[in-house]
Structures are given as C-alpha cells and as structure tokens.
Design goal:
The protein is α/β, with parallel strands linked by helices. It folds into two domains: 12-139 and 264-334, D-Maltodextrin-Binding Protein, domain 2; 142-238, D-Maltodextrin-Binding Protein, domain 2 (3-Layer(aba) Sandwich). It is 40% helix and 19% strand. The chain has twelve helices and eleven strands. It has helices at residues 3-11, 35-39, 57-72, 91-97, 113-121, 154-163, 178-190, 202-210, 221-229, 277-290, 294-304, 313-334; strands at residues 46-50, 80-84, 106-110, 130-139, 142-146, 169-173, 195-199, 216-219, 233-238, 265-272, 307-312. Strands 2-1-3-10-4-11 form a six-stranded mixed sheet, with helices on both faces. Strands 7-6-8-5-9 form a five-stranded mixed sheet, with helices on both faces. Helix 1 crosses helix 12 (313-334) and helix 5 (113-121) packs across helix 12. The chain is globular, with a radius of gyration of 19 Å. The protein starts with a helix and ends in a 5-residue tail after the last helix. Mean pLDDT is 86; it is low at 2-35.
Length: 339
Amino acid sequence: MKKFLALLMATAMTLSLAACGSGNNSTGSGSASSSGAETFALSGDVEFVCPFSAGGGSDLYARTAANVMGKLGLLGNRSITINNKTGGGGAVGDAYTVTKKPDGTTITTYVSAQITSPMITGNGITYKDLTPICNLAMDEYTIGVLSTAEYQTVDEFIAYAKEHPGKITVGGSGSGTEDEVCTGLIELYCGVDLEYIAYDSSAEVMTAMLGGHIDAGIYNPNEAISQYEAGECTLLAAFGPERISVLPDVPTFTELGYKDVQFQQFRGIFGPGGMSEESVDYWCDVFSKVIEDEDWTQGYLANNGLTSKFIPGAEFSTFIDEEAAKYEAVLNALGLLAQ
C-alpha cells in the first residue's frame, strides 16, 4: 500500500467526486426534456445489468430503480429484469453489456471502478465503448472494524497501525477502485501503512471481516448498516464532508481533524455503445421520474445515506470524461497504467 503515497500526495484533492465538474447541483428535480423521449419506444423487455454481486450497493441501486419503474408503469407493458454479471471490478458486466444491441433494451449500473479497471489491466471494455445515460446519486463511504477489535475509534485505529506498520489488513471491492483510494487516503493523511486486499464484492468483504480474515473493510452505508445496528461491527468514520443521515452517530474524518481524508462516489447509468440520442433521452426521462418517487427519495436515498444528483445525457458524458481524466492522471502517477 505504500505505492498509494506517491499517488495521493499529488492528486488526492482532485479525487473528490463530490466536486462534480459538470456544475449540475440538482437535488433530483431535473428532467431530460427532449422530443426524442416522447417518440422513442422500447422494442422489447429490458435487461438491467449489475456488474456487482447481489446485495451490494450497485445491486440495491438497480433493484430500487427497477421497482419504482414497475410501480409507476414507466415502461408501459415492458418488463425489467436485473442480471448480476460479477467480477473484475465491473469488467465482466461491462464485457457483457457491450455485446448487447444498442436499442435501449439493455442498461447497466456504472461507477468509477468500471473506469479504472481497464486502465489498470490494459484490456477489457472502457467507458468509451459504452453509452453514458445519466447520473442519479452520490454515494458515501465508511471504514468498519469488528466490534471486538481493540481499536474502536479512528485515533485508536491509527495508533495501532503506527505501532504495527503493514499489519492491518483492509478489504475492499476490487483493485484500483474507490475502496482502495479510500484506504490510500488514510495512509497518506494519517501517516500509516495498511495492507489492502481486493475482493469481488462488498458482501465478500463483510464476510471476510466478520470471519476474522481481515481487520477492516471499506463500505457504502447500506453495505454495513445491518451489521452496525446488530453490534457486530463498528464504523469508525465516514469519508464524506458531512455525517451520513442514516448513520448520524458515525463521525467524519473531517470533523476528527483529518480534513483531507474525504471521498464520494458517483452512481450512474450506462448502456451499450452506439445508443441513439432518442434512446438516451428516453431513459433520462424515465430516470427523471424515478428520482422523484418517494420510494427512491426516502426508501433508498434517505435510508441509505446517499445524496441525489441528477446529471442527464450530454452533461453526464462530459462529467464522465472529466472523471476519467482524473483517474488516468492518478494511475499514471502511481505507475499503474497499462503500457
């Protein structure tokens, strides 16, 4: 994990996905207004690909949106089915999505891990092979440990890590992903050396931590709240600038004096490459209605501590280009870009 020090020293502040380059600060009231959305019609039932395991953050994101679509009848007589295609930090799911027809009947969840994976491996599907549709929310991150661990606060965790350099293992979903960046931020700004271990999903990370195979894990709120409320794990701190609504007792690194240990994640929707402007407008219109529904605003966002941020169509495409440039610069500084 020492390799993260050089990377994050130069680029940590540019990695704050909360500072979205698009300049769109909608709280969910925006919609994609286009005649294309009014004239486009789906040619069949919809497959909603989730490149991560059932029970994880992306899976909940997809299933909540699909349920709202069904409840509101947004797809008419078309059904929508979630298909989990896991592995490779999203690479397996993206490789599957790119083979589908760009007719609007296939969409996929998309997060920044799916940008970095092909940058590191030098193969697989890049975001340019797919079609950006819209962003819906910004997700938060926390670091958790077992409730029986001898460190139950950030200060205790840091003190232990300093006394035992390289001995604390931190699990996260994938290599070169947001979870690893969060771990690296702790290393840099807290002056410790941690050992990051990559898993295929947050569910596997939690299982490994509860089984005593790793010492800590990086989690979105919904990935750890059940274990936290059950008293099985302690969430030491949140990475966002403010406390998470669903976890009001969990402090932020910022308020604890580590203001540079800060990170958020975008949660977007993509489709196969080559989707028409009309099909993109169609889905932007659908999702602009999804994000207004109470099951989304209260049942999903509020209950899981996410922040609504709707970025449609062309604006989202620009946003993704800017995020990709940030990650490329980071990975290049680290020496992890594939040659």
